[in-house]
Amino acid sequence: MTRSEQQPDKMNLNEGSAMAGLMFRLRDAACLQGGALSIPPQLTQSYVLIYIRQGQGSVTIGETMHRMQSHAIYFCPADDTFSVDSDEGIDTELYLFRMDIYQEQGGFKRRLYPLRGELQLCKGEAATLPSDTLVPLCESVLHYHESQDPLERFRSQFTFEQLLYHVMQCYRMKQQPSGSTLEQVRMHMERHLDQSMTIEQLARRMDLSPKYFGDVFKKHYGMSPMDYLTELRMNRAKLLMAKPNLKLRDIAHQVGYQDEFYFSRKFKKEIGVAPTVYMKRRHRRVAAYSLNMIGLLLPLQIIPFAAPLHPKWTSHYYRTYHADIPVHLRAYRQHDASSSKIQELQAHRPELILCPSEVSEEEKLQLEQIATVYYIPAQGLSWREQLMLTAELLGETEEAEVWLKKYERQAVRAREQLHAIVQEGTCLVIRITRNAIYAYSNRAIAEVFYGDLQMKPLSIYSEALYEERLTLDALSNLDVDHLFVLVQQEEETLQHWETMQYDPRWQEMKSVRLHHFYRLNSDPWRHYTADAMERVVKETLHLVSGNRP
Questions:
Q1: Which pTM was predicted?
Q2: Which of 101, 205, 246, 372 could join 115 via S-S bond, C-beta 3.0 to 4.6 A?
Q3: What tens digit of pLDDT does each residue of 437-475 get?
Q4: What is the pLDDT of residue 118?
């Protein structure tokens, strides 16, 4: 194969001839709506186009979160992740289209090759379009795609291409330079945190009254300009506090506060602890080499200096600590993840690396050239033993003992409340991946769900660990009282899960009819650390009690 015939991995739509060589194939179309609409982070194998007809909230593509706008288009490339979260109580409606993109390549014998990776158009928020153009096209694509008539389904394809044409027109217009915009004001705030800013000064940049500017900003970003500025300043301050030899006065000045005492009061109000306490915790430059290592450090009141973070692969820690952890290591599950993490650690030089003992010998040699490395076995030790070993190595044994006593009290209280609700009802956890269903129990489920919380298993599943494939018929015949469902967040599995919920065998199950089935997230249920176990206890109680997050 010649160079010109090789499969492309990236395309720039500004290249004039590029569009002529691209072909788009619609794979799926859906309209989602509701007052608390949520699409959990999921990996997509196809390109995804999301049109927000109405709503407020956030759309996250890869690691970038966009504030949701009505009549806006968002793109996610193939082999990347996306999620959607609408604001509570806000009616949201969106159209979601999945598509494959092909490019024509070659000389005399021209061929079509699947396009993978990032397409310039297909990344993030592309454009805000007029609804009178886009809504009828979206409705038509969905209508034709759902038709039972093959000819009408074929019609959905070229209607979808019309939709793409209008989107690309708006995308081209967006590339033209514009005047002072809301986004430019937001970027000004981020770049000049050390300067004094008032709402009057910011409003003048858009030639708006302060009140109208405040209303527009809040509608767009979900908070007032001054609250947004405070959040930016606190996040920047937390990053600065991880650096050695910086005085509190200097940090305050760098984030726009001339009075360090006022900054201290503001920081404690926003973050919950005084700056001096926070800085003491942060000055240990401990790197967590894996996700599980984060879950061993946090119970010891140690926030890692470096750790794997990603909106999907480490979603809980990314949401909670992305501004607290200065160095974000690669978390995406690809072959080059370890080399990328080592390069990051070489560049930032932590004092100490906490690492699973199961990593390769090559990785161990490279890590030990960077800093002192403490190895924690993932196998052979319980999560309690892992925590105590970590605490002993770090000189935090007393902190670990205090945390474990608190955990035991939480587990006892949760167990009493759960048993009052479920009585003697049986419980089962199932895992759905691709088109397969498994009765499932891992170490976390066995030791916490069935162990510490003493949830009652079905008698046929008395072993601690198992993964037994079930048919839907077999599952429906188990007559379980409370069903807990783990659904793998990838395209094929989610499509199978959606179809499965309309199956009469599923709908007639006792646990489904009584609304005693509960969706679980991989994090914490498939992780095995002290922090994850505590969250399993809390999440079980929230789900079963009806106080569902």
A1: 0.67
A2: 101
A3: 999 999 999 999 999 999 999 989 888 899 999 999 999
A4: 58
Upstream peptide bond of 524 is cis (omega within 30 degrees of 0): yes
Give Cα 344 distance to the centre of its chain. Answer: 22
- By the 8 A CB rule, do 75 and 61 touch? yes
Round to whole Å and give the CA distance between 513 and 530.
35
Cβ proximity of 238 and 255 under 8 Å: no
% of the chain beyond a pLDDT of 70: 87
Output the six-digit token pair for 451. 């162990």
> How far apart (Å, rounded) are the C-alpha atoms in residues 448 and 452?
5
Q: What is the pLDDT of residue 314?
A: 84
What are the residues whose beta carbons fall under 8 Å from the beta carbon of 2, sequence distance 6 or more? 106, 107
Question: What's the domain range around 314?
Answer: 284-395
Q: Is residue 406 part of a domain?
A: no
Structural domains counted in the chain: 4
Domain CATH code at residue 360: 3.40.50.1980
7 closest CA partner among 80, 84, 96, 106 = 106
Residue 380 and residue 476 in one domain: no
- pLDDT exceeds cutoff 90 at 79: no
CATH number (domain holding residue 64): 2.60.120.10
Residues 6+ apart with CB under 8 A from 352: 284, 285, 286, 287, 371, 372, 373, 374, 394
**Residue 152: its H or E element:** helix 150-174
**Residues 184-235: tens digit of each pLDDT:** 888 888 888 989 899 999 988 887 888 888 888 887 777 899 999 998 898 8
How does strand 426-433 pair with strand 436-441?
antiparallel
* Alpha carbons 119 and 167: distance in angstroms, whole number: 14
Q: What is the mean pLDDT of residues 415-432?
A: 93
Question: Letter for the amino acid at 267?
Answer: F
**Please, is 470 exposed, middle or buried when counting C-beta atoms within 10 Å of its C-beta (0-12, 13-18, 19+)?**
middle
Q: 512 near 483, Cβ under 8 Å?
A: yes
Task: Measure the CA–CA gap between 447 and 537, rounded to whole angstroms.
Answer: 11
- The residues that bridge with 97 in the sheet, in sequence order, are 29, 49
- Judgement on whether residues 18 and 135 belong to the same structural domain of the protein: yes
In b/e form, how buried is each residue of 126-142, taking b as 16+ CB within 10 angstroms? bbebeeebbbebbebbb
CA separation for the pair 13, 29 (Å, rounded): 24
Residue (of 119, 72, 83) closest to 100 by Cα position: 119
User: CA 334, CA 337: separation in Å to the nearest integer?
Assistant: 6
Number of residues that make up the chain: 549
Task: Write b or e for each residue in 194-221: b if 16 or more Cβ atoms lie within 10 A of its Cβ, otherwise e.
Answer: eeebebeebbeebebeeeebbebbeeeb
State the Cα–Cα distance between residues 413 and 415, nearest whole angstrom. Answer: 5
Phi, psi of 96 (to 5 degrees): -125, 120
Following DSSP, what letter does each residue of 77-90 receive, concatenated? -TTEEEEEEEPTT-
